[in-house]
Amino acid sequence: MKEQTEKLIAYLNLLGIRISNNSFENRMKAQKLAYIIQSLLGKHLYSFNFYVRGPYSPDLARDYFEHASDFASGKSSYEPSSDEREKLEHAKTFLSNMGLSEFEIVAGLLFLMREKGLDENDAELKLHELKPQLKLEDIWRGTNTIKKLFLASELRDKIMGELKDELDSWDSASNISLKGFE
């Protein structure tokens, strides 16, 4: 089995996801997940182009047909690094609750931003132009999911700490002001 296939299966295992190629929906989910995972980890596993349903890799399609039992069983000898594990653990809560349409939106937006160099707003508009059946609210939710996926845990913790400090300052000032009314 190719190294890229071993890695993808190991990453899917960390997410608790098994992929079967027995339906169009499963194959589409595999395509979108693979693109999201490689974007999240900053690794090139497969080359993707933008097709009707978003990012698509013919090489990945060939791999999940050639190694269908490995994808379905999660068989992989690759051991992800601690950095890969941390990033995927953070993403797990978001990715495990997403439906097929959400995968299509998130992967599509990521592709337009990363591969086509569009900023957030232009990517949203372009995706809606390419897929007018998608609701703008769903596309905006996809953008928010991307922000949550890519916000590093250290930065997230720092922001939350700063917000807590600011709220504590406001609470303290409020308590001092209220004492004047006693």
The count of DSSP E runs of length 2 or more, i.e. the number of strands, is 2
Largest sheet: 2 strands, antiparallel
**Rg over alpha carbons:** 20 Å
Compressed to H and E, one letter per element, the order equals: HHEEHHHHHHH
Q: What separation lies between the terminal Cα atoms?
A: 75 Å
Protein architecture, described:
By secondary structure, the protein is mainly alpha-helical. The chain has two domains: 3-151, no CATH class; 155-182. The protein is built from nine helices and two strands, in the order H-H-E-E-H-H-H-H-H-H-H. It has a two-stranded antiparallel ribbon. A hairpin with a 2-residue loop joins strand 1 (49-51) and strand 2 (54-56). Helix 2 packs across helix 5 (82-95). The radius of gyration is 20 Å and the shape is globular.
Task: Name its key features.
single chain; 182 residues; mainly alpha; 2 domains; two-stranded antiparallel ribbon; 70% helix
